What we know:
Elements: H1 3-10, E1 20-23, H2 29-41, E2 47-50, H3 53-61, E3 65-66, E4 75-80, E5 84-85, E6 91-92, H4 99-108, E7 109-115, E8 130-134, H5 139-147, E9 152-155, E10 157-158, E11 161-162, E12 170-175, H6 182-190, E13 195-198, E14 200-201, E15 207-212, E16 215-220
This protein binds ribulose-5-phosphate.
Amino acid sequence: MNEKRLVGEKAVEYVKNGMVVGLGTGSTVYYTIKKLGELVRAGMNIKGIPTSEQTAALAREEGITLTDFNEVESIDIAIDGADEVDADLNLIKGGGGALLREKIIANAASTFIVVADSSKNSVKLGTFPLPVEIVQFGFQMTTRKIIGLGCKPKLRLKDGTPVITDNGNYILDCEFKSIESPAVLEQKLNMIPGVVENGLFVNLAARVISINDGMVSERIR
Ligand code: 5RP
């Protein structure tokens, strides 16, 4: 069973004709975007706002019209994946490095829907190292300050060189083991100069579509 496909395609049921749709990033929402492409080719009229250059390219391939915040003031629905989902539907995101645009779009959406296979469920966040986007200037200092919050951060590398986000920044993957209060940590991280955004998505997800006992299941907040 392809869980990512099942949950990714299920989310499309919430997209209605005429909507502005935030398009997430990753291998689960990939299936959402492919399905939306099918619906668009069958006559559905939507506009997409992509959370990454990678998603923008996929959406264009699928024939989905893209828009941006110059043109629209609000987003009807955003659909995105997650790296970890806790019992209160708080999330860790940013495994794909798109957390900043993902958070801007999730915040701007009237409804934010998360699609997550069963491996993403957790009682308390912290199993997945928390991605934190930081500016390049002074990143050594920013890293030291983040260590002060009680984690082990690792600069994200690809082929031995730092990964650069779509916004021109670095990513630190921070091992916290267990995150007692996601809301408090989210604020503390964002108070550190040099931190652009972190991958804690607190009280944002309205609905999480996942798999339970082999069946698609939905949790709402
Ligand atoms: C990208 C993300 C993704 O939504 C998250 O990493 C989940 O990805 P996938 O659906 O490939 O497991 O936050 O920044």
